[in-house]
Minichromosome maintenance domain-containing protein 2
Amino acid sequence: MADILSLKESVLVYLDRSGGLQKLADDCRPLNDPQQTEAVYRFRVLVNPSDLIEMDPRLGDCVLHDPLRATGLFQSVCFLAIKTLSLTDKIHTASQVNVSLNFTHLPPFPEYTLDLSGFHQVYGPMRPVSMEGAVIAITRVMKYTQGARFLSLPPGCLKVSPRFLELSECVASSPWRFPAIVAHCFGLDLTPPGLYNTLKLCLLLSLVQTRTDANDPSLDLLVVTADTLVLDRLMAYSLSLACRGVRHQASTEMFASLSRDEHGAGTANIHAGSALLASGGICMLGDLGFYRKDKLDNIQSVLESRSVSVFIPGKKYGEEADQQLSFPVQCNFWALTDSSQRSGRADSAVLGTQDMGPVQAQLAETFGLVIQGGDRVGERGVVAQAVHTLQQTVQPGSHPHPSCWDFSTEDYQELVAHSRGLEVELSPDAKKLIHGYYMASRRARTQTLSCKIPDGGIAHCKLCLRTKVLEEDAVIAVLLCENSVTLKHGASALVIPPDAVFPCDLGDVDGLQRRDAALDELHQIILRFVYTFAPGADAYITEE
């Protein structure tokens, strides 16, 4: 008896120190309304296990390992406080007080973590646990339990590898060199340095543009190549860096499917497909040549609307009326198309266009960026890839390229995670260049630009570990967009090389200097294009 009184006294002291009594009084105030005629009244008590253990270890142990008993203690104390302080006249017995203990956090130990993939039965320890898993289906009536709580990592916990910080300091004089070296040294277990640099950069840019906020832009990639095997492996490796990456199989459901809830009232279960499961991450589609035409049409529709609609027939699921639900698609899509498979369409005479294989032009238009997956063409690239593959087979993990920085997969995971969480803003110079390019492109081309240049500039800025988008970031975004539009519709008055972002080899410091000089020249070419086709642009853009 003395122990119970001591624990109740500790509960009262904790509620007083943590502001729980004041919250209890605030929660009781609406109950005095005459229209409130409930039999049981529910109160939420916020509990910090660390503060509780520091104040009274016995009470902290009771809360963590005997939550039913702890709930009874808090219920008794809350009832006594309500009666003593005369907070409301509608509560007469302790059974009318329903107390729910909400934990601010749990100790970071395995005993307090429940992995749903490995432990899915109802039986378990009678203590609070933090559940980890993915929701793969929901019923039509979406109701959350009273104890549902979703936590996210504090942004301060994300850090960048010291190697990347050292590299950033070494190349601080140029806003282009850091992401160039990061892309140059990426995926060295699969491809030699210098091969597929543009694709590697675009994969990293797409990775840092993966957030779950509805207003965050997406950066979808379509890679046109004749060597789908190597690039498929490179994209699958990059998928491991995403916070949530799903590789879709052509034979499975991509968006959503319906089934009858056999354990409930016979209502509809909505099963999430690969795109919805990859929310806030990447959905890798693979080679689009393996998809049927109706599947490709569905992909095009979702990319255009960024949402999935599910029609639920009422008669089939025991309801009087039909219902249609819509779910937002908040992931980036990666896809491949084999250019060696002739599309059957007539050859176009437009300079610069690339055959998309089995992919229709309307579907290619919905992707933010279309990339030609081959920085080096011809025999040289094939020999370099073959030699690299043989070296990795004989000596796995070896990098016989002394010019490259040594970055691990964990280093890239930390870099992507940190860059993804940065909040950036467009500088006035970047806005002016992007706006001028849009104006000039509308006059120089008959097609509408499908790529969103600000998204590419924002992603490049994040990858550079900066918080303000510079004009140099906008230049990279314009070059990627122009190359993408050229592959789909042909060249325009803005004449740039096919691989404008990496116009030279980066094997040494001289290569980085030559790249900077080439990008500076391309910057001036973009400005002259803007001045020529966007009259009045010189009023807000200053030519360097």
User: Anything to note?
Assistant: The mean pLDDT is 81. The CA atoms of residues 115 and 415 lie 27 Å apart. The chain has two domains: 2-110, 171-537. The chain has 18 helices and 16 strands.
